[in-house]
Amino acid sequence: MNKISVSEKFEQINHYWEPKIIGEVNDSYIKLAKFKDEFVWHVHEHEDEMFYVIQGTLTIRFRDGDVVLREHECMIVPKGVEHMPFAEEEVHVMLVEAKSTLNTGNVENEKTVKHLEKI
Amino acid sequence: MNKISVSEKFEQINHYWEPKIIGEVNDSYIKLAKFKDEFVWHVHEHEDEMFYVIQGTLTIRFRDGDVVLREHECMIVPKGVEHMPFAEEEVHVMLVEAKSTLNTGNVENEKTVKHLEKI
Lengths: 119, 119
Fold this sequence. Notes:
119 residues; mainly beta; Jelly Rolls
């Protein structure tokens, strides 16, 4: 039971779009991820997902428009809503997700990460 | 489904030790709170609790020692572990908690907040 330095954890993340688990709170994982460029359109049919921007700017594209999140802004994407994260420059994001959540949701492709590393 | 500015939400919080709900992610609430001075020793028997420091310094006292959290540091207090948050100066904290979590855990006193406001 130790404190977690989010900045130090980000130093251990070397690849975009590969969330790492930094802790678990009941049925959720707290994850950190670096994003850059486009992800993939997907939906989590049964799970809400929170994005909190620690550093940089994150765009979440929806079918009816974009939402731009800057530092200290967050958004909860409700289950069932199709979305695609996008970042022009590297962005550092904290995620709160159900333990069952797969990063690419209903899609499986080269960006799918089935076994998340704990850091 | 809108983005949430954490800074703007903190401007709406006028009392210490009264967490406000800013969103829900599956079975969890995301809460914001301002703390100052001592809280109360308590335990959540069945729920883990995450504290993430947005601004300021938070001390979490445990029976075997203190943990000091600064900006961008967080800690998950596992269920069953007695603790007491303390802040010498005002601190702004994000909490991730089960929807069932009561702020004072197994204790009920003047700091207990049973019905949390959504902001």
